[in-house]
Design goal:
16 helices; alpha+beta; 14 strands
Length: 483
């Protein structure tokens, strides 16, 4: 008899080797053979996103703790002492409103989620209470170790990263790389696991990716109806701010992107669950009144709930039809150079933005109409465009050329340096902009990819008919010889 309970996803059980490793005394562990430990922690972003050196510090200093159900791990109002990463089980995070003593359950934390970091970052007391919902296994860091790892100056970028960019990134020749330090987190060091989606929509990426180790693949999505996905006005404005012009910086990061389409980074909002619930660390929040805190947390909880519902819906729709195909020859070699636009001569008023947006939308609409007579795929599929290896980069063409197609980036287990586009634009000199426009080549439009698919399908159908015709003639000749 079929039983649904036999097919339910069960809680993640960590390997005994991981448990035994973190039970060893801190500071005395042998890190020569820890590849298995790294693989077991590869889905935990607060660990895997960091550089190998910082990962080694966690492997050396963190320890293992286990709690039974309904145990309080941290209490609202207590002093912050430790940082916690959930290895298995689940925990309830609650907030007691100071104005009316009402207790709100904000979220259920599962494997890979964190808590305790907000108080350590602000040197303040805990603003949440966390209780174990099931048996809970945790990885714990002392506050001094947490600050040495996650709040160090070289967490985002080290001297070795700067040296690598100067010597191994050709597109940065003549670019004042040292000026990145003028902007907070303008360079990030980030690790991506095998088959991890780095970005679903490359047009919405806020960083230029430079491969330091490993590789990642670029895929192009083709839809059955030949539809070209359009961007909202908000994202068009973002594209304009990231063009090769001197515009306003967008360091506030207040875009309301869907979680499914955000680029994976090493930002605090990506790594830490408590930061996602309560907002990033800001000096202004330290002067808030109790009423301000209650209102802000309630507002953030509602917005987080809505965002997660939207992201889960979009993930369900995309995952149900995604089918990656490994080969599609002839796509990359058919790229044509598009006419360049001198963005320095464009004014930044609203009328020029609207004019450019209308021109791009008309061009996109005309290309969509031309695909009406093409052979389209019967289901959504992904075409492999190219693989980027050490020293190669992605994300610059969107800043230089209009109407670039959207791509999906998938990691082959790589180590990347992320350069913030808004900071990149402000640092780049006029001479550098002119040189980079001459050297970079844009990707083809969406219509080229559909035409390439059409040509391949026509060839497949033609070759199939030729094969059938040859078989018929051979059989006919054999029958005539027998007679």
């Amino acid at each position: 008899m079929f039983d649904k309970s036999n097919f339910k996803i069960r809680s993640f059980d960590i390997l005994p080797s991981v448990r035994d490793f973190f039970k060893q005394p801190t500071g005395e562990r042998d890190l020569t053979n820890v590849d298995e430990i790294r693989r077991c922690l590869s889905d935990i972003k607060p660990f895997s996103r960091l550089s190998i050196q910082l990962q080694n510090q966690i492997l050396q200093e963190a320890w293992y703790e286990c709690y039974a159900e309904q145990r309080t791990i941290i209490q609202q109002g207590d002093r912050s002492a430790c940082f916690y990463i959930i290895l298995s089980g689940s925990a309830l995070i609650t907030y007691k409103r100071i104005t009316d003593d009402h207790i709100e359950t904000l979220d259920i934390l599962k494997r890979g989620c964190t808590f305790g970091e907000k108080g350590l970052m602000t040197n303040d007391r805990h603003i949440f209470t966390v209780k174990s919902n099931t048996q809970l296994e945790l990885l714990v860091l002392w506050k001094d170790d947490f600050k040495a790892i996650y709040m160090a100056n070289d967490r985002y970028c080290s001297k070795d990263d700067i040296k690598f960019l100067k010597t191994n990134a050709p597109f940065l020749r003549g670019f004042p790389i040292d000026r990145f330090h003028e902007f907070p987190h303008a360079i990030q060091h980030c690790n991506f696991g095998l088959s991890e989606v780095i970005a679903r929509d490359s047009r919405r990426m806020k960083h230029i990716l430079v491969v330091k180790k490993g590789s990642f693949e670029v895929w192009k999505r083709l839809d059955p109806d030949g539809r070209v996905r359009k961007s909202s006005k908000q994202h068009l404005d973002q594209f304009q701010n990231e063009k090769m012009i001197d515009g306003d910086d967008d360091d506030d990061d207040n875009d309301d992107d869907d979680t499914a389409d955000q680029q994976e980074t090493a930002d605090n909002k990506i790594l830490f669950s408590e930061i996602q619930l309560s907002g990033d660390v800001e000096a202004s929040s330290l002067q808030e009144t109790t009423l301000d805190i209650d209102l802000r947390l309630s507002r953030l909880r509602r917005s987080t709930t809505i965002d997660r519902r939207m992201s889960s819906d979009s993930l369900t729709r995309s995952d149900s039809t995604t089918d990656l195909e490994k080969q599609f020859p002839g796509v990359v070699d058919k790229r044509d150079r598009m006419q360049l636009i001198d963005y320095d001569e464009l004014s930044l008023n609203n009328s020029s933005k609207l004019l450019l947006t209308r021109q791009l939308s008309k061009r996109s609409q005309s290309m969509t109409n031309k695909k009406s007579n093409l052979i389209l795929p019967d289901r959504m599929l992904y075409l492999h465009i190219k693989t980027l290896n050490e020293g190669q980069s992605f994300g610059l063409t969107d800043m230089l050329f209009p109407n670039q197609p959207t791509f999906t980036l998938v990691s082959n287990e790589c180590e990347c340096l992320l350069l913030r586009k808004s900071s990149f634009v402000r640092i780049a000199s006029d001479q550098y902009k002119q040189n980079i426009r001459r050297t970079e080549i844009p990707f083809p439009s969406d219509s080229v990819f559909y035409k390439s698919y059409h040509a391949k399908e026509e060839w497949k159908r033609y070759s199939k008919e030729v094969y059938k015709d040859a078989c018929r003639r051979i059989l006919k000749q054999q029958s005539m010889l027998k007679n």
